Amino acid sequence: MTEQLDIEQDDQELFEHLRIVADKGQALLRLDKFLMNRVENTSRNRIQNAIDSGSVLVNEKVIKASYKVKPFDVITVVLPDPPRDTEVYPENIPLDIVYEDDDVLMVNKEAGMVVHPGFNNYTGTLVNALTYHLNQLPTLPGNTGRPGLVHRIDKDTSGLLVIAKSEWAMTFLAKQFFDHSITRKYVALVWGDLKEDGTVTGYIGRNMKDRRIMDVYDDPEKGKWSVTHYRILKRLGYVTLIECQLETGRTHQIRAHMKSIGHPLFNDESYGGHKILKGTTFSKYKQFVENCFSLLPRQALHAQHLGFVHPKSKEILQFDVPLPEDFRLALEKWENYSINSQE
Known about the structure:
This protein is of the alpha+beta class and about 350 residues long.
């Protein structure tokens, strides 16, 4: 029986702010839990209030929070105010610019900065900063709200991003990303003692229960093909420092891949790395790991190297940036712990 509420809407016009179509593989899940998984930077209380006020519709009907979302359901959030426009407003936010010419800009993004505006992240993003620092950024069809961007890295991942300053540069760089000819190398600290270098492959798609995270599947219908090559940089006992080279660039690729082989990134909350997964039961060790978590309050992932062919000169450009302080300090603690535990 459909749990439809008898709530009358006011005569005022309602504007659609968010629209989600449930996947064909969507398991039955309460509406409030479904939205918690799909809507970033919100709380259960805010979602509950929106449902109770009749602002959340399922297939154009007002529904209770206990309604079970089914495959192909259309969930919309409607409000009396029109949604925020898609124009990106300039903000004077300092940027670490590694390289710049008339065609491209290389930025070393700090952890914690969102790359482009989106739901609940309309300000303080890298694109807001770029719009202030540059007179104009190119856009292409399907790239609304993300001018100049040909790729992205996660909010809590630090490191290199290349920005296109012209439509030609954007098209040229996008083709290199499509052809997988861009060289991208990341440094990551993962749980466990990796024995040898390797490659992780699989089809990356959304987790069926939590849409905020990705899973690695064997079924091509469940995701996009992905390849990550990794090599060991330093073994530190209960953790390993590795370099990951991306052959493809899927959402959360390294994070999902390393979890899939049993070595999630250190302090990666979304993928289970924020718990003590390896080591002793001694309280002193537990305190040591928690101190490392405090020094590095994010996933231990840094986009260290980026190489590409310049869109105008056709020269191969290679860029490297050092580990940021939070990553470096946590790594030093693990290095010291590894040395002392062997004595």
